[in-house]
Design a protein that fits this description.
By secondary structure, the chain is α/β, with parallel strands linked by helices. It contains six helices and six strands, in the order H-E-H-H-E-E-E-E-E-H-H-H. It has a single domain, classed as Mannitol-specific EII, Chain A, CATH 3.40.930.10. Strand 2 and strand 3 form a beta hairpin. The longest helix has 17 residues. The termini are close together.
């Protein structure tokens, strides 16, 4: 599964303005409101915050990948945002976050979840790709950047 087909344009934001880590996580989860029902959205919120309590998903290089597995959903969902201003996220490298990629999946599909997290990490490891994302001003531009990078990197 490629990331650009997982990302719905309604779940992508450019220049998101948030005040802190909790605000960021809630804002990115709220982007899924058109794809899941309200109970599932709250299950997602609980799973992501529970995962975040275990260890910060601020993976370094100004990126956070909050994620979780949820019993009440049948599909994988993703959201992505670039931030207007960097925020502290307790990242492993101590640097603030400027972009966030949310991934949630069904509890029963652990291997798919791990594969998608790995794909996100490999793709987002590219400095030039991260820089190109910071230049995007609209969800369409961000979506297209993901599409082009995946085709370049994975050949899909």
């Amino acid at each position: 599964m490629n990331l650009y087909s997982l990302l719905d344009k309604s779940a992508i934001l450019a220049n998101l303005n948030v005040k802190d880590k909790n605000d960021l996580i809630n804002s990115i989860i709220d982007l899924l409101k058109n794809q899941v029902n309200s109970d599932q959205l709250e299950d997602i919120r609980q799973a992501v915050f529970e995962r975040e309590k275990i260890m910060s998903t601020g993976v370094g290089k100004n990126l956070a990948i909050p994620h979780g597995k949820v019993a009440s959903i049948e599909h994988n969902y993703a959201g992505f945002a670039t931030l207007k201003d960097p925020i502290d996220f307790d990242s492993i490298d101590g640097k603030p976050v400027t972009m966030v990629f949310l991934l949630v999946g069904p509890e029963k599909k652990n291997s798919t979840h791990i594969k998608l997290l790995s794909r996100i990490s490999r793709l987002m490891n590219s400095t030039s790709f991260r820089e190109s994302l910071t230049q995007c001003e609209t969800p369409d531009e961000i979506y297209e950047a993901f599409h082009q990078e995946e085709v370049r990197y994975f050949g899909n």
